[in-house]
Amino acid sequence: MKFTMIVVGLLGLFIAPGFANYNNYVNDDHNVAVSGQQSVSINNQHNVANVDNNNGWDSWNALWDYENSFAATRLFSKKSCIVHKMNRDVMPSLQDLDVLVKEEKGKEPGGPPRKELTYSINPTKVEDLNQFGTKIAGMCQGIPTYVAEEVPEPNQPLYSKKCYTANILWILRMSFCGTSVETF
Prior knowledge:
One of its GO terms (molecular function) is growth factor activity. By secondary structure, the protein is an alpha+beta fold.
């Protein structure tokens, strides 16, 4: 019995590095003298990345499904989920994300994120989540879900007042903008 426990323990030590999980602290722009924590989990076997931003009421969770080319962000303060196509030209590949996260680990924020994306949220709720794959359907199940379309760069200033912004470890800034305050 002791031998089995030792083998299982050693096996865990060798397998654990294969599941990348990185914690970084992020500053909160809305609260004074408070910071949140952001973690990135990369699962190469399932071809997904999961980003958790734990910052009180401004917490959010993002799931990047590289297999289906969709991403979803669950905004806890808005009690909603936003789904969009992944822009492979701007969003890092799973392997590049792993490298970038390791580079950023333990660093203080050094200016604005390297890349930015802005999305316009369609005010119509999604009826069938399965069209985005089982991973995103599982994450957004039971909460209002909306589809967002990427806004081309020249039009981005038009959305500056009605947006919810999610920074991914100073690598990428994603802004989700509604057509009205009620939408989002």
